[in-house]
């Protein structure tokens, strides 16, 4: 089945053929007898070829319907192949390089030639075009079906006239004909037209931003001057309805978007009368302590010691019990700037070059964000907590994200820490007025060494996703999977915490 484009091209060819035939010499096709022989009529209830002057003519809407035999006929070409009308139409479409074509009737042979511009090698080249005579007429040898010449769509008329008595005609003819005057478009059609015109006569809305940081939105000053149609606007299809009443001129009085908006408000009072938010019945949170300890300057801190024993329980640097029992550090912190970084809590110095020891909770920054890291040095190894054959090893709280996997064995050297991307650590929101509750934990029972290093889901490394041993996230969540990080840092803002507990702030 030919596409619509090809069908239209075939119709164009047949139209030009018919015009060329009727304009050809009378010795070829341009005579009344030839036309009548190829016209169709209804005879004995059957569509028949050849019409007399007394019979009624059958006229088709399209030449394709009038000459269906043209579509199935074939002709031989000079190269020994055959072609059809559909093939010809396909090869003279605009994208084939053919810009046009004509139909020529040879006055001596009455042959019908199709000539392309520029000349096409497919259709005769410079040798006068392609002879399509046998494609448009003849008799099928197998079926006996006659393919008439494409003259059957022309209607003949006699060159004669009759004198009409206008006075007598008015006695019988009503010249006031109102039935031809339409009632106008329907109400719905007018509404549809209104909204279509509105879309056509407006531009996309401008971008509103608070450019001067005064809390009020601003708009680019060039929008109105670029888009508004004004009294002195020359013919310009890009100009649109004026936006503001203040920019209306004589030709656009009461015809701006602002004026239209104000009119619409009169119809939508019930929509605009929106009830306010429901009363907040939540209780207000009251601080449980009388105050807090505040570090006013950098490098200030607190040293915690046990006055009754040499060491605080669990923090014996000789036994390093914390490596086998684990520990948790919690604190409330408010960050006063975006640039400072340092230690929030430490025991010993896990990153010193000689005899590193202990752990630290610290904050790191880059140009855009603040991060938190818990770093634990496990260099003891005798109790089996260190799986790296007694070689010093660090456990820190970074996770696998996006295209950046978790670093494991590289942390057996201090250089391994430098291979960790800072964005893999816990992010602190940028809000200098907010308090944050930080919870840092070290759990030696987590099997970090056997964890799936290819998994790039942070929830897996926070011990909250079941390990399925496949190297891909299982999607099954749990409170403690036993896999992932031994060291992890979690954070929640005061606002989030109190809201989750049902308090009003």
Describe the 3D structure:
The protein has 505 residues and is of the alpha+beta class. The chain has three domains: 4-147, no CATH class; 196-268, no CATH class; 322-500, no CATH class. The chain is 20% helix and 17% strand. It is built from 14 helices and 19 strands. The strands form seven sheets. Strands 13, 14, 15, 16 and 17 form a five-stranded antiparallel β-sheet that branches. Strands 5-6-7 form a three-stranded antiparallel β-sheet. 20% of the residues are buried.
- Our measurement of the CA-to-CA distance between the termini, rounded to an integer number of angstroms, reads 72 Å
| Percent helix range | 10-25%
User: What coarse outline follows from CA principal-axis ratios?
Assistant: elongated
Strand tally, please? 19
Radius of gyration: 46 Å
User: How would a crystallographer describe the biggest sheet?
Assistant: 5 strands, antiparallel
**What count of domains describes the coordinates?**
3
The overall pLDDT, averaged over residues, is 85
Low-confidence stretches: none
Beta fraction of the residues?
15-25%
What's the total helix number?
Answer: 14
Structural class, from helix and strand content?
alpha+beta
């Amino acid at each position: 089945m030919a596409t619509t484009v090809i069908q239209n091209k075939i119709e164009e060819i047949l139209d030009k053929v018919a015009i060329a035939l009727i304009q050809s010499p009378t010795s070829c096709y341009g005579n009344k007898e030839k036309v009548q022989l190829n016209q169709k009529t209804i005879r004995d209830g059957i569509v028949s070829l050849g019409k007399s002057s007394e019979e009624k003519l059958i006229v088709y809407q399209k030449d394709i319907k009038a000459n269906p035999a043209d579509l199935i006929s074939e002709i031989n070409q000079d190269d020994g192949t055959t072609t059809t009308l559909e093939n010809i139409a396909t090869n003279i479409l605009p994208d084939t390089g053919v810009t046009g074509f004509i139909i020529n009737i040879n006055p001596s042979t009455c042959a019908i030639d199709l000539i392309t511009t520029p000349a096409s090698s497919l259709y005769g080249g410079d040798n006068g075009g392609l002879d399509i005579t046998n494609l448009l007429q003849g008799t099928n040898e197998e079926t006996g079906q006659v393919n008439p010449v494409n003259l059957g769509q022309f209607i003949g008329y006699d060159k004669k006239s009759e004198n009409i008595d206008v006075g007598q005609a008015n006695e019988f003819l009503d010249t006031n004909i109102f039935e031809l005057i339409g009632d106008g478009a329907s109400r719905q059609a007018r509404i549809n037209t209104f909204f279509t015109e509105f879309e056509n006569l407006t531009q996309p809305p401008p971008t509103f931003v608070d450019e001067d940081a005064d809390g009020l939105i601003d708009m680019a000053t060039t929008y109105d001057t670029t888009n508004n149609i004004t009294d002195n606007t020359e013919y310009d299809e890009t100009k649109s309805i004026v936006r503001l009443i203040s920019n209306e001129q004589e030709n656009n009085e009461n015809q701006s978007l602002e004026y239209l908006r104000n009119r619409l408000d009169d119809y939508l009072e019930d929509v605009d009368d929106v009830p306010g938010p429901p009363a907040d019945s939540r209780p207000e949170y009251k601080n449980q302590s009388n105050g807090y300890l505040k570090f006013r300057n950098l490098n200030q801190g607190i040293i915690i010691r046990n006055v009754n024993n040499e060491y605080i329980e669990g923090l014996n640097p000789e036994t390093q019990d914390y490596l086998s029992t684990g520990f948790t550090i919690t604190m409330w912190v408010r960050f006063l700037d975006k640039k400072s970084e340092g230690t929030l809590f430490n025991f010993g110095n896990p990153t010193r070059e000689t005899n590193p020891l202990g752990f630290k909770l610290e904050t790191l920054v880059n140009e855009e964000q603040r991060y938190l890291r818990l770093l634990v040095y496990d260099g003891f190894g005798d109790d089996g907590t260190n799986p790296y054959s007694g070689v010093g090893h660090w456990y820190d709280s970074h996770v696998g994200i996006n295209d950046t996997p978790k670093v494991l064995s590289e942390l057996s050297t201090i250089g391994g820490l430098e291979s960790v991307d800072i964005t893999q650590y816990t992010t602190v929101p940028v809000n200098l007025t907010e308090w944050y509750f930080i919870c840092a934990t070290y759990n030696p029972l987590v099997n970090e060494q056997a964890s799936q290093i290819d998994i790039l889901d942070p929830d897996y490394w926070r011990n909250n996703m079941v390990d399925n041993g496949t190297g891909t996230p299982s999607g099954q969540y749990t409170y403690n999977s036993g896999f992932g990080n031994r060291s992890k840092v979690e954070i929640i803002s005061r606002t989030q915490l109190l809201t989750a507990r049902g308090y009003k702030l």
